[in-house]
């Protein structure tokens, strides 16, 4: 059976955040880059601070955190989000 | 002792010999040159600046010297060096006064990393410092010169030096750089101001520097906390001055873009600008008329809470 792919932050020391009304800035110590995220993307990225998660686990976390209808399908959104985060060097695949 | 205490032969003698040890804010420059236009620029623009008497240590040893060789008979050129290393390709001798100022700026922006450095002007009045940022040619220095003529204290025209821990800005109060049409605008607005020699470059056009007010130079140790940050945009056909507050998250990224060493400072830079966004409100500030811009910045509507 193929193990579920999980994602983790590239920065072992975590990320640095500054939250504003509807947007947040995050500093990635690994790349030295600063990124601006809306609340949905922020919730997704912040969910990985507690440890590696699969895309499905991120969806569940985001639904709960954002108070969305449990039936909302975030899978495509999260897949794209992880693609962006990976390109930016914020996340990487966690060893299985 | 200040530079004006030297007579011209003494000034030339120091510049050609052991160097002129000049203090500008927190930095000491040991300056050597045999180029007359640079010496004249120093005499006109730096008259009020203190000289370092204790010649034990200079932050930067710079030299502007005519380039030797056969080509000097065709196109006279000069070189700028820092600590004996050449920072630029040789440049036309006619640009020497401007290159002197740019060279001093680059000494700081390339080497000073205990401070967050930004490409921008800073002025202060009643304890409230205003940082003026913008792309090249956006009207930063024009507005800075007008504010200084209006009684604001000059902290810097080109390099904002922010302490990442306290967010205080260290003054350097060096001459204000003006280009092309802004030269006439500022000359009309400040007829009593002293200007250096004009340089001309194909890329930048006409360049001249304006002498900083004596009081600003004398107060070079008084730091100031910024309360407003402007991203200026000069629109010559615009009669009114218009300003719009910028979301702090966006402003953070735009301030970081204007910094020379944000990336180098890493987390300390991120933290400093994050706190700066709490302390200072940021605006897009569009103007085409200096009296209107000065009036806007003097109003309670702008500096009120």
Q: In words, what does this structure look like?
A:
The complex is a heterodimer of chains A (96) and B (305). By secondary structure, chain A is of the alpha+beta class. Chain A has 3 helices and 6 strands. In chain A, the strands form 2 sheets. Chain A has a 3-stranded antiparallel β-sheet with strand order 5-1-6. In chain A, strands 2-3-4 form a 3-stranded antiparallel β-sheet. In chain A, α2 (55-66) crosses α3 (75-87). Chain A is globular and about 35 Å long. The two termini of chain A are 12 Å apart. Chain B is of the alpha+beta class and 305 residues long. In chain B, strands 1, 2, 3, 4, 5 and 6 form a 6-stranded mixed β-sheet that branches. Chain B has a 6-stranded mixed β-sheet with strand order 10-8-9-15-17-16, sandwiched between helices. A 3-stranded antiparallel β-sheet of chain B has the order 12-14-13, sandwiched between helices. In chain B, a hairpin with a 2-residue loop joins β4 and β5 (85-86). The radius of gyration of chain B is 19 Å and the shape is globular. The mean pLDDT of chain B is 92.
A few lines on this structure:
The complex is a heterodimer of chains A (96) and B (305). Chain A has 96 residues and is α+β, with helices and mostly antiparallel strands. Chain A contains three helices and six strands; from the N terminus they run E-E-E-E-H-E-H-H-E.
List the helices and strands and how they pair.
The complex is a heterodimer of chains A (96) and B (305).
Chain A: E1 6-9, E2 16-19, E3 23-28, E4 33-38, H1 39-46, E5 53-54, H2 55-66, H3 75-87, E6 91-93
Helix pairs in contact in A: 2-3
Chain B: H1 8-16, E1 20-24, E2 27-33, H2 36-45, E3 60-66, E4 77-82, E5 85-86, E6 91-92, H3 96-111, E7 116-119, E8 121-125, E9 128-133, H4 140-149, E10 153-156, E11 159-162, E12 176-179, H5 181-189, E13 199-201, E14 205-210, H6 214-218, E15 226-234, E16 242-245, H7 248-257, H8 262-265, H9 267-279, E17 281-287, H10 290-298, H11 300-303
Parallel strand pairs in B: 2-3, 9-15, 15-17
Antiparallel strand pairs in B: 1-2, 3-4, 4-5, 4-6, 7-11, 8-9, 8-10, 12-14, 13-14, 16-17
Helix pairs in contact in B: 4-5, 7-9
């Amino acid at each position: 059976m193929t193990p579920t792919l999980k994602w983790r932050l590239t920065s072992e020391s975590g990320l640095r955040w500054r939250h504003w009304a509807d947007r947040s800035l995050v500093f990635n110590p690994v790349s030295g880059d600063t990124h601006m995220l809306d609340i949905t993307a922020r919730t997704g990225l912040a969910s990985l601070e507690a440890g590696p998660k699969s895309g499905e686990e991120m969806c569940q976390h985001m639904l709960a955190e954002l108070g969305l209808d449990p039936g909302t399908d975030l899978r495509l959104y999260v897949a794209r989000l992880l693609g962006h985060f990976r390109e930016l060097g914020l996340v990487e695949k966690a060893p299985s | 002792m200040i530079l004006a205490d030297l007579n011209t032969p003494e000034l030339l003698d120091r510049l050609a010999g052991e160097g002129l040890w000049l203090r500008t804010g927190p930095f000491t420059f040991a300056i050597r040159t045999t180029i007359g236009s640079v010496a004249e620029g120093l005499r006109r623009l730096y008259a009020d600046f203190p000289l370092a008497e204790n010649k034990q240590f200079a932050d930067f040893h710079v030299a502007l010297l005519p380039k030797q060789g056969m080509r000097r008979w065709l196109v006279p050129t000069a070189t700028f060096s820092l600590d004996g290393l050449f920072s630029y390709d040789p440049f036309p001798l006619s640009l020497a006064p401007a290159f002197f100022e740019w060279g001093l700026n680059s000494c700081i922006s390339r080497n000073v990393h205990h401070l967050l450095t930004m490409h921008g002007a800073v002025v202060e009045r009643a304890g409230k410092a205003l940082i003026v940022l913008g792309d090249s040619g956006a009207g930063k220095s024009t507005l800075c010169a007008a504010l200084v003529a209006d009684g604001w204290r000059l902290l810097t025209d080109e390099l904002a030096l922010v302490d990442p821990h306290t967010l205080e800005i260290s003054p350097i109060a060096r001459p204000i750089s003006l280009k092309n049409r802004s030269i006439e605008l500022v000359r009309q607005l400040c007829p009593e101001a002293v200007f250096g020699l004009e340089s001309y470059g194909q890329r930048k056009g006409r360049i001249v520097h304006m002498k900083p007010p004596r009081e600003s130079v004398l107060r070079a140790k008084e730091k100031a906390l910024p309360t407003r940050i402007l991203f200026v945009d000069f629109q010559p056909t615009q009669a009114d001055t218009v300003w719009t507050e910028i979301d702090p998250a966006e402003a953070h990224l735009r301030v970081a873009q204007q910094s020379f060493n944000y990336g180098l400072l890493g987390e300390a830079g991120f933290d400093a600008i994050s706190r700066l966004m709490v302390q200072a409100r940021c605006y897009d500030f569009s103007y085409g008329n200096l009296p209107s811009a000065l009036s806007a910045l003097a109003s309670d509507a702008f500096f009120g809470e």
